[in-house]
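Researcher:
Attend to token order:
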Amino acid sequence: MRFRLKAFSLHLLSSATVLTLILGSLYLGWYRWPGWHLTDVKTVVFVMVCVDVVLGPTLTFIVASKNKPRRVLTRDIGIIVVVQLCALIYGSVSLWSGRPLYYAFSENVLQLVQAYDIDAAEAEAGRLQNPGLAPHWYSRPRWIWAPLPQNAEESEKIVASAVTGGDDVVSMPKYFKPWEDGLPSLRGQLKKVDSVAYFAKSEKTRLKQRMKAAGLPDDQSNTMALTGRGHPLLAVFDPVTLKITATLKAN
């Protein structure tokens, strides 16, 4: 039993250390609030934790025996480690491909833009035409303004594409502009909580309660939805400086 516990402990420590380094790096670099919530990657992380921290060490505890030949024990643990590595690689690639790159104000909503929302051709076009705001592999999340182009024909094409489930302007870095340039437009799109789309009536009631608890006015036009693949958040703005003072969960 002592041998099994030692093998289990060493395997658990190693697995937990590697997983913590990977998830910690991704979280600190790209997934900090509100990214983790909006990307809704709980399932991927759950699989990684279950396989790498729970299943792997548990199987090692089961197969470890000091009476086994060293070659057989090495083979058994090696198979377990290979399965763990597969889960770790799958999860890491999924999280990297879906890492948050932008929080974009476009038209009347704030949207999370993830790495896989921007295809290679659009990324390259952005690097050529708008290098200051184009994405790179090392890019960290940035707040930007993504207005429709002034060219009416191009704008209509983008709207038609977005309506049919194709690319939207938020996935076209060549059109991105600095966040500050969009603030006058953003001011005109702020609404009272009761007028914000994306939330049910009960959620709006809950959001107003949370705004009051945080000392934020809930009867002014100072809010906008912040959307992603997870449940949307409510972004609350300072009506004077237009800085975001809070991002609140509705559920």
Observations:
- Residues 237 and 243 are 5 Å apart (CA to CA).
- Helices lie at 2-31, 35-39, 42-63, 70-97, 120-129, 152-163, 183-187, 201-213.
- Strands lie at 100-106, 109-114, 142-145, 177-178, 223-227, 233-237, 244-249.
